[in-house]
Protein 1
Amino acid sequence: MNDLVVNLARWQFAATTIYHFFFVPLTLGLSVLVAIMETLYVTSGNEVYKKMTKFWGKLFVINFAMGVVTGIVQEFQFGMNWSEYSRFVGDIFGAPLAIEALLAFFLESIFLGVWLFGWDKLPKKIHALSIWLVALGSNISAFWILVANSFMQSPTGFAEANGRLVMTNFWDLLGNPNVWVQFPHTVLSGFTTGAFFVIGISAYHLLKKNESDFFGRSFRIASLFGALSILLVILVGHSQGQHMVKTQPMKMAAAEALWDSEDPASFSIISIVDQKQQKDLFSIRIPGVLSLLSYNRFSGEVKGINQIQAEYEDLYGPGNYVPPITISYWAFRVMVGVGFLMFFIAAFALYHVMRQMDLSKMKFLKFMPFAILLPYLANSSGWILTEVGRQPWVVYGYLRTADAYSPNVTSGMVLTSLIGFVLVYAILMGADIYLLRKYAKAGPKLVESNENHDDDSYWN
């Protein structure tokens, strides 16, 4: 029964997290792009940039609202389904979450209101500053969430006392090396998401020759922003992988289906594994490449699943310390494969922009709207790898997931809330997609008509 409760609670947290994470990256990236557009309007005085700011800002606000609604549930689950986790690390985990709410969330919420209702009421520079503060608040919010998550991945700045973990050094918590590879990777992934969102919608309108100057400028800004962002995502991701080899070797071994330690270590092109039999049913590997990725040289040991399992049994006692290999393996490949695909798409778009070519005649332009989905696929698979690859730990090395659930919660309770959340979130997701699609397809004219309909605000 306990296993059923734990699994249902894990499914609920996974479902609500993935739903929420559909909205977060677009908030991170689109807020910065809207701020850039308004800055161009303030510095150039060109009205088309004001028009762009309002149009893309409309889509940003729709997405932001859904992100807030789905995010609130996340923190409640720690008390509902994971009370033992909250008891064990609440003194540490609660601090960054509280700062995120009191500092970052209030910052972005307050100045979003200033920005929404301050058009033509505030000086241009002050109004532009407000959207930059929204973007700053959104990204600071991500920082504090990742401080909390990084403690789960690689605990620092704590001591054990009376069966709990207590904070001993707040600055060690902030200086956790895991934060400084995870945070830039996540934020830059958000920037990429925002860029591909703008590229895809702009490509749709360029194909239909709607507002060519408007969407041509949007396409150019997003192409430069997106190409730079995805390049940095790949570079930071490389550093994050090397950090993972040091701090979570089992996660890397699972992501590579590496059963036994190798030096030099081979990189898997494709593997079909049988986790129960602890063997590959089929595998194609390239010698030395995993060592190159791990140490920047074609030599260096990467530990295998069997050796790490034996080490962990000696260190933590009997048990299964191997995460789900198939999920970890394919999540890693989807994330990396889609990431490089986005890099080539962004580079291809930027090439046409830099050559000042007619964007409406660009080859493969008709496929660009579908590229909007790529960052979501990469983001979701990346988080699946991050969380599933950490199993069986909820706090790495200190608290197992099976020991973190709420003992008085029944499977019926969790199943009921799981079904309820999935249904409600599905409705919210449908509403979000409907609104985004409606305004994205209509273009800036619909935003302008709303503005003219109500002199106080075009958002009504």
Protein 2
Amino acid sequence: MKPINKLVLAIAAAAALAVPSMPLAAQSAPSPISLNGDVKAVKIVTDADGKQRTELVEPNTIVPGDRLVFGTDYANKGADVVTNFVVVNPLPGAVRLAPDADPALEVSVDGGNTWGVLTKLALPNPDGTTRPAVHADVTHVRWVLPTIAPGASGRLTYPAIIR
């Protein structure tokens, strides 16, 4: 298979685009929450004893079927507790959500218009019926962080596979 190098740059750029989702009024004030996104390739490494371990590495060259982990680090740099902070990550078109993603992950299969766990979402068929949504249909993932204390930080991740 042909390596995909330019795609790496596009995916890395998309990973940095974790979008906080807040009401319009809240967007006018600067947010005390900082977000930083990244993407890592999953690599299986065998040590001298023959034991395998998984490492997350920079995705220099990737091919269809390779696994990636998209991450967003968040931190409350303010003096007040932040409540119900929403982080939305669009999935780049070149990837699909991995089947081993957390089944409780809130996702959208319609560009971010509706949200739910994947097993509860459906898409329309051309004949007017619907079909259950699958991992390859996911367009966005979303997390709602109930409270982020001053100085608190964390990391949000989801696994993906190159199409």
Protein 3
Amino acid sequence: MNNLKNYLLTAFLMVTAIFYGQEKHKKDKIKALKVAFITERLDLSSKDAQAFWPLYNKYEEDRDVLRNKEHSEVRSKIKDVGSLSEREANAVLNKYLSFEEEEEEIERDYLKAVTKVIGAKKTLLLLRSEDEFKKQLIKQYRERHGNR
């Protein structure tokens, strides 16, 4: 019986590790596709690319950290809104607004820094390219999963 428990636990851990690895692989693949897409669209010189990509990666990282923090501190509580008092709900709402302001500040600082490196026209092209990439990704997802 003890061997069965060990076997089941080992099998569960292996399946979990494989699933996590596949999810991480998918995220890495999407990130690589996004980098290639943006690189092609912006047609950056090697000098501009060396200055641009660290800014872009820092921006993405800062946004991810903020979103994860927001999820743990706000979004998870929104799911249980029925169990919150009015006072608790007000505190969660204020925290949500604070996260929104912080996200705007991160984006504003990033856009100012990027504009200094690649110029306003390419910064606008970057914004458009990111939107186009998202649309393309959604379209491919829908085609693969039969949702149109």
